[in-house]
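Throughout our pipeline, every protein is held as a single compact record rather than as scattered files. The record that follows is passed on verbatim for readers who wish to inspect the format:
___
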Amino acid sequence: MDGFIVEGGPDGFLAGEPELPALANELGIDDRLVGQLSRGTSLWTGTNLVRIEEGRAAALLGIDASTNEVTAGFRTFAGGMQEPVTALSQRLAGVLRFAQGVAGLTRAGRGWRVAVTGGSAHDADAVVLALPAYAAGRLLETIGVTHARSLAQVVYVPSITVSLAYRADQITGPLNGAGFVVAACCAPTKRYAPTSPCLHLFVPEIPRPRPRRPRSPACLPATNRR
């Protein structure tokens, strides 16, 4: 919807975690960080929303968060969580390589050599295995990592995010708070300041299908020396 931010994934991060703010500062976008406006969470009982104590929502959702993390709340970026990705992509534009499948990984002195399809290779100081566990296991097994094959046993549970938009006048009761939880559903309600003059409430529902194991491996992105 034009004029609104609809996140396809997480809509924020724990304010108590320092890594993302530090990256934002390095990228020069720390002024784009926004804090949480409303606090509190409700539980949907099937008929109405009941206020619950702070920290219980994390426990219900299986989130391992400390008391300090829960107290600190959440933060996000004024333009959504895409902002640090865009800024980082622009900063690394000269060294990023796209559409290259990884054919192998070997040690090269104190670093690594990543072989890609087509016969070329990239030397890197470090490698991030941003791919499914079963595919990472195959690569790690080739370099002699103990128990790498056991990663193939990791089962993935797919998730689907559906964003439902409502006009503010369609909501008859107050929704002040950080969100609500019900079985397998969470919503940001009025957590952050609206990015449009007319407030719409976006409620992402997250169904949980039965667990399944992915069929096809993903490619490993190669990271060049900077």
User: Anything to note?
Assistant: The chain has two domains: 13-88+159-205, 97-153. The longest helix spans residues 82-91.
